[in-house]
Amino acid sequence: MLSRVADSLYWMSRYMERTDGILRMLRINYASSQDDIHEFSWKPVLQIFTYLDEERAATISRDTRAVLQYMVTDKENSNSVLNIVTRARENARGVQDHITKELWQCLNDFYHTIRDEQLVRGLQTDDPVSILDVLIRQGLLYYGITDVTMARGEGYAFLNIGKFIERGVQAADILDIKFSDLEYDFTRMDTTWWKYLLLSISGFELYLKTYRSGFDARNVVEQIVLNPNFPRSILYSVNRLQLHFQRLKDDLNKEGYEKLDFMIGKIQSRVRYTTVDSILQQGLHSFLKSVKDDLYEVGTAFNHHYFAYL
Amino acid sequence: MQTSELLNNYNVDPRTWDEMYSSSTVREQYKGVVDFLRQMSIEELSKKEELAKRLFMSQGITFTVYSSGEGIEKIFPFDIIPRIITAAEWTYIEEGIRQRLKALNLFLKDVYNNQFILKDGVVPFEMVYSCPHFLREMHGFPVPHDIYVHIAGIDLIRDHDGTFYILEDNLRTPSGVSYMLENREITKRIFPDLIPKNNVRTVTEYPNILHRNLVSLSPRQTAHPNIVLLTPGIYNSAYFEHTTLARLMGVELVEGRDLVIDNHRVYMKTTGGLQPVDVIYRRVDDHFLDPLVFQPDSMLGVAGLMSAYRKGNVAIVNAVGNGVADDKAIYTYVPAMIRYYLNEEPILKNVPTYQLGNPDEREHVFGHMNEMVIKKTNESGGYGMLMGHTATEEEIDRYKAEILKDPRQYIAQPIISLSSAPCYMNGRMAPRRVDLRPYALCGPEGIQIVPGGLTRVALREGSLVVNSSQGGGSKDTWVLAG
Lengths: 310, 482
Hints:
Chain A is mainly alpha-helical. Chain A has helices at 3-34, 43-49, 54-60, 64-73, 81-93, 101-114, 117-125, 128-149, 154-181, 191-200, 204-210, 217-226, 234-246, 254-272, 276-282, 284-305.
């Protein structure tokens, strides 16, 4: 496969994963903002998904409609849903002969949907949840079409590599920033707060089923970092990354394969063979940061060994 | 209101050949479609038109216009009523194009090798050597199977009496074939069952034939040569076409930056290292192909490509240097080429053409500017053109001054009226002028022309310019089986 094509598939997939993450986060936080929480703030969300400096983040962090505008449709925000969907589509456009026609049409439709001004105006004037739902559904369509129509070849491997690197980074980010908001104070037991954190990454129901003893920060860390069956946990993302990466083994690029195999294997063992206790001993922030840095490094190594074409 | 009423308002210009009507009776080939349309209400037709637009949009059959840093998606306007060509008309067109292409191919081989046609004085030396598309880099090198023109999109028009004329030969990188294919797909969706009922010949073979021809050009003797389609990239207005063709043929779509030359061989950069490339179907113009030989600042091509080509290590489609044969001044000599190389009379006629480089002809043209269309010999897409009958005195004078600076770069043709075909315009049927571009594929086994083509239509009332860059649209083009 052309290096440029692999690169585009990887980024298309990362952007789509990010889109999904942002939209879910917005949907749940919107609900949370309407709930009875004192001093609800969008600050953590803005910190995870935008590059706003603290001052500017503070000016809009209590204005729900302004946050929605900035994060969904703002043209100046390079991480707005509008901009990342546009980039995902641009990437898809350049590799149309490597994705199925259905997948291309799905991304193209998503692009036209997000640019439909009448629709997104509703984010300002209407119930934003229904509009976010329309967008989330477009993203789900993307996942479904990828699963049902894409051949399980090299291209599919790069799609998944991008997806799970992005997802792993997101999980680490969400956890880190949410806890930093509490200044890593594990004794705080605000049930609603935990509930919305878990809901925002679709992990609430699983939590209830796994832990019967109410909300405990340690359990939340365990689920988001270590649960191999929670599709948004760090361990799950890293396991998947490793699985899809292995499909590149037949490739002629032996040097690159060995290098990345080592790097991914290292992250995987680090996450797999640890416990909540040892994470806390190391310090949650330092653990999450090192996982994130390692994942970024894997991305850079892919760039170097697989995507270099310029 | 019924559609039949719409048809009553269909006013054909009496000096124009209409594809549907012959002195107010519907021609045989259009009866099926007209009967079908009669059963439909305007609302239904308008819905069909909406559906067609939506299909183009959601399938991304669009080109992007960039303004103020933002891309706006546009669709190439599509008229829902098909243009119909009878079996007899098609046979005639097919034979004519085949003959013409044979002669043009021989001309290219000759002009880049022995130059018999120049030495025999049939085509003047200065005509060829003054053409900017005549490339010395092509001299004396045998292209595979002696084929220069692998893909041709020859434009035909019809005068008031229905006679077909060749308007221009597009022998470089003719575009539009994806619209031939996609327009048909859209018709299938908006008018279910209409195509099978009317005995229309299929166009779907096109990518298969092209792929077979490309495979046969591989310089390496291998069962699975690596074929690539070289595109200028996603900002090119024909990018949609490049992806469609790559997808339909199952070949790799590459940009210049994906390729590299090592030791006069072409490779593509893949995740598994460099892979050899055998055949390049390029949609990049000659002058951008190789910065070492042509335009040095081109980012679209590959440095060293021409030397790999000349060594015979890679096949390039269409051949480099074809522009000398579809130059608008050389065009005048095509009938002479047909007589010279084939010893046959041309089947399809040329539009009479005046060379403005010739003082006598220039004199004549300057005296009859109002009846002429004047074109630059090496521009396409309707750019740099003057339509004498609509231009103001001032425009004409300015254009004349322009011509006198370099008369060789201009030709003039009497204005041919172009046939009209029915179009669905804002709830009624109206005649609009059309041309026809069939696509001919030339491989080692001969010339094949897929029964169909691109009908371009001038959507503005009375306009004779069909180019998409000048507000033209297109139609599905039906060739009926016998």
